[in-house]
Design goal:
mainly beta, OB fold (Dihydrolipoamide Acetyltransferase, E2P), elongated
Length: 278
């Protein structure tokens, strides 16, 4: 079965002046001759991305697009025509974002977060209507599990995220030391799975391991700033987040831990790595 809009392992059935042909369940797909790997011959199996071009022909490429069918991706708008907007996804044929699949009008140069899907015409297309592709949690998610997060919108409660390219989740404002941008990828953890399948996530693992990571983060920041940070327990949360990307609570715990370990010295003007005293 041919997976249009994705990669396929296909054997070359014929080589012509135009390129290599692959016989598929949907017809012959052409890999242009300039993309044919050196030494490839009839029978050679290649990993190729297959799509339908502007002339309704099955086309294969060894190039890797920025996203495939089923992916969410942040892509740049190249132009807008009478049928919709076209996005740069790394291939010669730009990706269509139909007008009917736009929540809001987009303009040339915009970065838009889209989901790649296969249109009924057989062509690969994009949509900004992400919610219809996001499903409630199933048994594959467990509380405490490490997950991949993609920020896609903000509400009064916090950041809406896509978990593992599939499930919907929420990062509460209290979880955000610095506000990530829509389209930004984060590593997080499942905090709570509700009865309706909605998921609360956190960026912090918790426990001794998290405390260790916070101390390592603070040490790295100290080394980056020549062994000194002008931060104290009276510093603002914003100042702390800017320099070390920790909440004030986590910063104070990390300072206390490093001080007990003898790794830092504390001064009225800030903290300093031991051995780096002026």
């Amino acid at each position: 079965m041919l997976n249009i809009g994705n990669f396929n392992q296909l054997p070359i059935s014929k080589i012509t002046a135009a390129g290599a042909l692959f016989k598929t369940s949907e017809g012959d797909a052409l890999l242009p001759l300039r993309l044919l790997p050196k030494g490839a011959e009839v029978g050679t199996v290649l990993n190729v991305f297959v799509y339908v071009d502007s002339e309704e022909r099955l086309t294969a490429t060894t190039k890797r697009p920025r996203a495939v069918v089923g992916d969410f991706a942040l892509l740049k708008v190249i132009e807008t025509t009478t049928v919709g907007s076209f996005l740069d996804w790394g291939l010669e044929k730009d990706l269509l974002l139909p007008f009917g699949e736009q929540n809001d009008p987009v303009r040339r140069g915009d970065q838009v977060l889209v989901r790649i899907y296969l249109h009924t015409s057989g062509r690969v297309a994009a949509t900004t209507k992400l919610d219809k592709f996001i499903i409630p949690a199933d048994d594959s998610l467990k509380e405490g599990q490490e997950v991949a997060l993609l920020v896609y919108a903000y509400t009064d409660l916090g950041a809406k995220v896509i978990i593992n390219n599939c499930f919907g989740g929420l990062l509460f404002h209290t979880e955000l030391v610095i506000k990530p941008k829509c389209g930004e990828h984060l590593c997080g953890y499942v905090k709570k799975i509700r009865d309706d399948g909605k998921v609360d996530v956190t960026l912090r693992q918790g426990g001794a391991q998290e405390a260790f990571k916070d101390r390592e983060t603070l040490l790295a920041a100290l080394k980056k700033h020549d062994g000194f940070l002008s931060l104290t327990d009276k510093s603002s949360p914003e100042s702390i987040a800017l320099l070390v990307r920790l909440s004030k609570k986590s910063f104070k715990k990390a300072v206390g831990g490093l001080y007990k370990e003898g790794a830092i010295t504390m001064h009225p003007e800030g903290i300093r790595l031991r051995g780096e005293e002026a």
